[in-house]
Design the sequence.
Protein backbone atom coordinates (compact mmCIF):
# COMPACT_ATOMS: atom_id res chain seq x y z
CA UNK A 1 0.00 0.00 0.00
CA UNK A 2 1.50 3.36 -0.96
CA UNK A 3 1.75 6.49 1.20
CA UNK A 4 -1.27 8.26 -0.28
CA UNK A 5 -3.53 5.26 0.30
CA UNK A 6 -2.28 4.97 3.87
CA UNK A 7 -2.87 8.68 4.45
CA UNK A 8 -6.42 8.42 3.11
CA UNK A 9 -7.09 5.52 5.47
CA UNK A 10 -5.54 7.42 8.38
CA UNK A 11 -7.76 10.41 7.58
CA UNK A 12 -10.75 8.09 7.96
CA UNK A 13 -9.51 7.14 11.44
CA UNK A 14 -7.65 3.90 10.68
CA UNK A 15 -5.15 3.57 13.54
CA UNK A 16 -3.13 0.83 11.91
CA UNK A 17 -2.57 2.98 8.79
CA UNK A 18 -1.57 5.93 10.98
CA UNK A 19 0.84 3.70 12.87
CA UNK A 20 2.41 2.48 9.60
CA UNK A 21 2.87 6.00 8.20
CA UNK A 22 4.47 7.26 11.40
CA UNK A 23 6.70 4.19 11.64
CA UNK A 24 7.82 4.64 8.01
CA UNK A 25 8.80 8.24 8.68
CA UNK A 26 10.25 7.81 12.17
CA UNK A 27 13.86 7.39 10.96
CA UNK A 28 13.82 10.63 8.96
CA UNK A 29 12.23 12.70 11.69
CA UNK A 30 14.46 11.17 14.36
CA UNK A 31 17.63 11.98 12.39
CA UNK A 32 16.49 15.52 11.65
CA UNK A 33 15.45 16.38 15.21
CA UNK A 34 18.54 14.91 16.86
CA UNK A 35 20.77 16.89 14.50
CA UNK A 36 18.76 20.04 15.20
CA UNK A 37 18.77 19.75 18.99
CA UNK A 38 21.93 17.78 19.73
CA UNK A 39 20.10 16.38 22.74
CA UNK A 40 18.47 12.92 22.72
CA UNK A 41 16.09 13.69 25.63
CA UNK A 42 14.80 16.90 24.08
CA UNK A 43 14.59 15.11 20.73
CA UNK A 44 12.33 12.44 22.20
CA UNK A 45 9.89 15.10 23.45
CA UNK A 46 9.95 17.00 20.15
CA UNK A 47 9.42 13.83 18.10
CA UNK A 48 6.46 12.80 20.28
CA UNK A 49 4.90 16.25 20.01
CA UNK A 50 5.48 16.27 16.25
CA UNK A 51 3.69 12.95 15.92
CA UNK A 52 0.84 14.12 18.11
CA UNK A 53 0.35 17.26 16.00
CA UNK A 54 0.60 15.22 12.80
CA UNK A 55 -2.16 12.87 14.00
CA UNK A 56 -4.40 15.72 15.18
CA UNK A 57 -3.97 17.64 11.92
CA UNK A 58 -3.85 14.76 9.43
CA UNK A 59 -7.00 16.14 7.74
CA UNK A 60 -5.08 19.31 6.82
CA UNK A 61 -2.32 17.36 5.08
CA UNK A 62 -2.34 17.66 1.30
CA UNK A 63 -0.42 14.91 -0.49
CA UNK A 64 1.31 17.25 -2.97
CA UNK A 65 4.32 17.14 -0.60
CA UNK A 66 5.84 14.08 1.05
CA UNK A 67 4.53 13.18 4.50
CA UNK A 68 8.09 13.32 5.89
CA UNK A 69 8.46 16.89 4.58
CA UNK A 70 5.26 17.88 6.33
CA UNK A 71 6.47 16.28 9.57
CA UNK A 72 9.84 18.07 9.29
CA UNK A 73 7.95 21.34 8.98
CA UNK A 74 5.94 20.55 12.12
CA UNK A 75 9.10 19.52 14.02
CA UNK A 76 10.89 22.73 12.96
CA UNK A 77 8.01 24.85 14.25
CA UNK A 78 7.89 22.94 17.55
CA UNK A 79 11.64 23.38 18.02
CA UNK A 80 11.35 27.09 17.15
CA UNK A 81 8.62 27.46 19.80
CA UNK A 82 10.76 25.58 22.29
CA UNK A 83 13.71 27.93 21.69
CA UNK A 84 11.43 30.96 21.97
CA UNK A 85 9.82 29.79 25.21
CA UNK A 86 13.08 28.78 26.82
CA UNK A 87 15.09 31.64 25.35
CA UNK A 88 17.88 29.27 24.31
CA UNK A 89 19.94 30.45 21.38
CA UNK A 90 22.95 28.18 21.60
CA UNK A 91 23.62 24.83 23.11
CA UNK A 92 27.07 24.71 24.63
CA UNK A 93 27.46 21.04 25.38
CA UNK A 94 26.22 18.23 23.21
CA UNK A 95 24.77 15.23 24.97
CA UNK A 96 25.30 11.72 23.75
CA UNK A 97 23.01 9.23 25.37
CA UNK A 98 24.74 6.22 23.92
CA UNK A 99 26.15 3.57 26.15
CA UNK A 100 29.52 2.95 24.59
CA UNK A 101 31.90 0.24 25.54
CA UNK A 102 35.02 2.35 25.39
CA UNK A 103 37.18 0.67 22.79
CA UNK A 104 39.68 2.95 21.09
CA UNK A 105 37.64 3.24 17.87
CA UNK A 106 34.51 4.08 19.76
CA UNK A 107 36.28 6.74 21.82
CA UNK A 108 37.52 8.35 18.59
CA UNK A 109 34.10 8.04 17.03
CA UNK A 110 32.43 9.55 20.09
CA UNK A 111 34.99 12.37 20.20
CA UNK A 112 34.45 13.16 16.50
CA UNK A 113 30.70 12.99 16.89
CA UNK A 114 30.79 15.43 19.80
CA UNK A 115 33.20 17.82 18.11
CA UNK A 116 31.23 17.91 14.87
CA UNK A 117 27.90 18.16 16.65
CA UNK A 118 29.29 21.08 18.68
CA UNK A 119 30.26 22.84 15.45
CA UNK A 120 26.79 22.25 13.97
CA UNK A 121 25.19 23.45 17.20
CA UNK A 122 27.13 26.71 16.99
CA UNK A 123 25.13 27.60 13.88
CA UNK A 124 21.93 29.56 14.45
CA UNK A 125 18.85 27.32 14.41
CA UNK A 126 17.78 28.78 11.01
CA UNK A 127 21.14 28.08 9.38
CA UNK A 128 21.29 24.69 11.06
CA UNK A 129 17.88 23.71 9.71
CA UNK A 130 18.83 24.73 6.15
CA UNK A 131 22.16 22.95 6.39
CA UNK A 132 20.66 19.69 7.74
CA UNK A 133 17.84 19.64 5.21
CA UNK A 134 20.24 20.24 2.32
CA UNK A 135 23.25 18.23 3.40
CA UNK A 136 21.63 15.19 4.96
CA UNK A 137 18.28 15.02 3.19
CA UNK A 138 19.10 16.55 -0.20
CA UNK A 139 16.07 18.84 -0.34
CA UNK A 140 16.08 21.44 -3.12
CA UNK A 141 16.40 25.14 -2.19
CA UNK A 142 12.78 25.57 -3.26
CA UNK A 143 11.53 22.80 -0.96
CA UNK A 144 13.56 24.13 1.99
CA UNK A 145 12.15 27.59 1.40
CA UNK A 146 8.65 26.09 1.63
CA UNK A 147 9.43 24.05 4.75
CA UNK A 148 10.99 27.01 6.58
CA UNK A 149 8.73 29.66 5.02
CA UNK A 150 11.55 31.91 3.81
CA UNK A 151 12.77 33.10 0.39
CA UNK A 152 15.04 30.91 -1.77
CA UNK A 153 17.79 33.55 -1.67
CA UNK A 154 17.79 33.39 2.13
CA UNK A 155 18.02 29.59 2.03
CA UNK A 156 20.98 29.77 -0.33
CA UNK A 157 22.86 32.37 1.68
CA UNK A 158 22.19 30.48 4.95
CA UNK A 159 23.57 27.28 3.43
CA UNK A 160 26.65 29.03 2.09
CA UNK A 161 27.33 30.73 5.43
CA UNK A 162 26.81 27.46 7.29
CA UNK A 163 29.19 25.50 5.05
CA UNK A 164 31.87 28.21 5.19
CA UNK A 165 31.55 28.32 8.97
CA UNK A 166 31.83 24.52 9.26
CA UNK A 167 34.92 24.45 7.01
CA UNK A 168 36.52 27.24 9.07
CA UNK A 169 35.79 25.46 12.36
CA UNK A 170 37.02 22.06 11.11
CA UNK A 171 40.22 23.71 9.89
CA UNK A 172 40.66 25.54 13.20
CA UNK A 173 40.28 22.25 15.07
CA UNK A 174 42.63 20.63 12.55
CA UNK A 175 40.05 18.00 11.68
CA UNK A 176 40.49 18.47 7.93
CA UNK B 1 36.18 36.65 -10.74
CA UNK B 2 36.95 36.64 -7.03
CA UNK B 3 37.29 33.81 -4.50
CA UNK B 4 33.86 34.46 -2.97
CA UNK B 5 32.14 33.94 -6.32
CA UNK B 6 34.11 30.75 -6.87
CA UNK B 7 33.18 29.47 -3.40
CA UNK B 8 29.52 30.17 -4.06
CA UNK B 9 29.66 28.45 -7.42
CA UNK B 10 31.38 25.35 -6.08
CA UNK B 11 29.04 25.05 -3.08
CA UNK B 12 26.00 25.27 -5.37
CA UNK B 13 27.62 22.75 -7.69
CA UNK B 14 28.35 20.42 -4.76
CA UNK B 15 24.67 20.48 -3.81
CA UNK B 16 23.40 20.28 -7.43
CA UNK B 17 21.95 23.79 -7.36
CA UNK B 18 24.03 25.40 -10.11
CA UNK B 19 21.10 27.27 -11.59
CA UNK B 20 21.34 29.73 -8.69
CA UNK B 21 24.96 30.81 -9.28
CA UNK B 22 26.69 32.62 -12.12
CA UNK B 23 28.36 30.41 -14.65
CA UNK B 24 32.08 30.73 -14.10
CA UNK B 25 35.14 29.06 -15.47
CA UNK B 26 35.43 26.55 -12.65
CA UNK B 27 38.39 24.42 -13.59
CA UNK B 28 41.13 26.40 -11.91
CA UNK B 29 43.18 25.54 -8.82
CA UNK B 30 41.14 27.59 -6.37
CA UNK B 31 37.92 25.84 -7.38
CA UNK B 32 39.59 22.45 -7.12
CA UNK B 33 40.84 23.36 -3.65
CA UNK B 34 37.30 24.25 -2.52
CA UNK B 35 35.97 21.02 -4.02
CA UNK B 36 38.55 19.00 -2.09
CA UNK B 37 37.62 20.76 1.14
CA UNK B 38 33.93 20.08 0.54
CA UNK B 39 34.64 16.40 -0.05
CA UNK B 40 36.59 16.24 3.21
CA UNK B 41 33.82 18.06 5.07
CA UNK B 42 31.27 15.66 3.57
CA UNK B 43 33.23 12.67 4.90
CA UNK B 44 33.62 14.23 8.35
CA UNK B 45 29.97 15.17 8.59
CA UNK B 46 28.85 11.64 7.83
CA UNK B 47 29.67 10.82 11.47
CA UNK B 48 26.36 12.47 12.45
CA UNK B 49 24.46 10.16 10.13
CA UNK B 50 23.75 7.24 12.40
CA UNK B 51 20.87 5.49 14.07
CA UNK B 52 19.69 6.47 17.50
CA UNK B 53 18.34 3.30 18.99
CA UNK B 54 18.12 4.84 22.45
CA UNK B 55 15.27 7.12 21.36
CA UNK B 56 12.20 4.99 21.76
CA UNK B 57 8.86 6.29 20.66
CA UNK B 58 5.71 4.34 21.44
CA UNK B 59 3.70 5.35 18.39
CA UNK B 60 0.53 3.54 19.49
CA UNK B 61 0.62 5.44 22.81
CA UNK B 62 0.89 8.73 20.87
CA UNK B 63 -2.09 7.69 18.71
CA UNK B 64 -4.12 6.87 21.86
CA UNK B 65 -3.19 10.24 23.37
CA UNK B 66 -4.29 11.99 20.16
CA UNK B 67 -7.61 10.13 20.36
CA UNK B 68 -8.11 11.31 23.94
CA UNK B 69 -7.40 14.91 22.90
CA UNK B 70 -9.84 14.61 19.96
CA UNK B 71 -12.52 13.18 22.27
CA UNK B 72 -12.01 15.97 24.80
CA UNK B 73 -12.31 18.57 22.02
CA UNK B 74 -15.49 16.91 20.74
CA UNK B 75 -17.04 16.90 24.21
CA UNK B 76 -16.17 20.56 24.68
CA UNK B 77 -17.73 21.39 21.30
CA UNK B 78 -20.89 19.44 22.18
CA UNK B 79 -21.15 21.24 25.52
CA UNK B 80 -20.89 24.65 23.84
CA UNK B 81 -23.55 23.59 21.27
CA UNK B 82 -25.87 22.39 24.05
CA UNK B 83 -25.47 25.58 26.11
CA UNK B 84 -26.06 27.75 23.03
CA UNK B 85 -29.16 25.79 22.02
CA UNK B 86 -30.52 25.97 25.59
CA UNK B 87 -29.96 29.73 25.73
CA UNK B 88 -31.70 30.21 22.35
CA UNK B 89 -34.73 28.08 23.40
CA UNK B 90 -35.06 29.79 26.78
CA UNK B 91 -34.82 33.22 25.13
CA UNK B 92 -37.49 32.19 22.65
CA UNK B 93 -39.75 31.00 25.51
CA UNK B 94 -39.31 34.26 27.40
CA UNK B 95 -39.98 36.28 24.27
CA UNK B 96 -43.09 34.16 23.47
CA UNK B 97 -44.49 34.62 27.01
CA UNK B 98 -44.02 38.40 26.82
CA UNK B 99 -45.54 38.53 23.33
CA UNK B 100 -48.48 36.13 23.53
CA UNK B 101 -49.14 35.83 27.26
CA UNK B 102 -48.57 32.82 29.47
CA UNK B 103 -51.91 31.08 28.65
CA UNK B 104 -51.29 30.88 24.90
CA UNK B 105 -47.75 29.79 25.59
CA UNK B 106 -48.91 26.91 27.86
CA UNK B 107 -51.35 25.73 25.16
CA UNK B 108 -48.56 25.89 22.61
CA UNK B 109 -46.32 23.84 24.91
CA UNK B 110 -49.01 21.16 25.49
CA UNK B 111 -49.44 20.86 21.70
CA UNK B 112 -45.70 20.61 21.26
CA UNK B 113 -45.23 17.86 23.88
CA UNK B 114 -48.18 15.93 22.40
CA UNK B 115 -47.10 16.05 18.76
CA UNK B 116 -43.31 16.32 18.90
CA UNK B 117 -42.71 12.60 19.66
CA UNK B 118 -44.62 11.71 16.45
CA UNK B 119 -42.08 13.78 14.57
CA UNK B 120 -38.87 13.09 16.50
CA UNK B 121 -39.18 9.30 16.93
CA UNK B 122 -39.48 8.45 13.17
CA UNK B 123 -36.61 10.83 12.35
CA UNK B 124 -34.36 9.23 15.00
CA UNK B 125 -35.25 5.71 13.86
CA UNK B 126 -34.56 6.60 10.23
CA UNK B 127 -31.17 8.05 11.21
CA UNK B 128 -30.29 4.88 13.08
CA UNK B 129 -31.34 2.90 10.04
CA UNK B 130 -34.01 0.98 11.92
CA UNK B 131 -36.73 1.89 9.43
Sequence:
Amino acid sequence: MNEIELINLAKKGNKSAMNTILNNNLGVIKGYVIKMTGDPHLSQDIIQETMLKAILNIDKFEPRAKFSTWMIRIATNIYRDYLRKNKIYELTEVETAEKYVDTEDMVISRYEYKEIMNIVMKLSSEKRAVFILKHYYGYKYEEISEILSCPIGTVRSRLHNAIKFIIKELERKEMI
Amino acid sequence: MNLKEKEEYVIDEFYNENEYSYKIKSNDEECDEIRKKLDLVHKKLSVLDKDFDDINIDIMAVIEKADEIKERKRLKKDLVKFVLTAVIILSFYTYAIVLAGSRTFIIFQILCTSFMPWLIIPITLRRRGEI
